[in-house]
């Protein structure tokens, strides 16, 4: 386990070191930052590197296996209702726990002066992800083309766009972007590959992927529908 964490730390350092160096150069050469501010930045950067490395190690050790296990077990039970209910709540609760969504909701709450409550926005996004991921899993089970889902989804987006308030239209687009974050992506990917691995005639490569794209599309539609219906 320690070896895996060490490898993750090295990988994260290689990924973020160029960003850290650029910011340090700008702070020293352009902003003339005080030594204390520079020290705080470097300390925070070290915490970020360690935090991401620990998170990625935890994903590999726990989240990916449990997502794969749940995805493979639900269809094996032979109950369509269990697949629908289990997938929906799995997607919903995973989305609620996604840190990126909480950051977006908090910033919107502040920027709107409480006009867009963070709790309501998180719930709308989570329900949207749970619903569309369930549709995606049913696509894997019944074998209809992924292109049909995307065509229908983006068709709905185009239909709703003229009727959605401009403020919420921008929020909807960002909601779709932040949903596919560090927590949602590995869990949803593992769920899709787990479902496809136990179904005869299904390929984990061609059928197991695509759920993350749908998860990004769901909140866009969900937030736009809220704007059209209630605002």
TrEMBL record:
Origin superkingdom: Archaea
Keywords in alphabetical order: Membrane, Transmembrane, Transmembrane helix
Spell out the protein name for this chain.
Answer: DUF1538 domain-containing protein
Q: Which residues cross the membrane?
A: 12-31, 38-59, 79-97, 118-142, 148-170, 182-202, 208-230
One Pfam family per UniProt: DUF1538
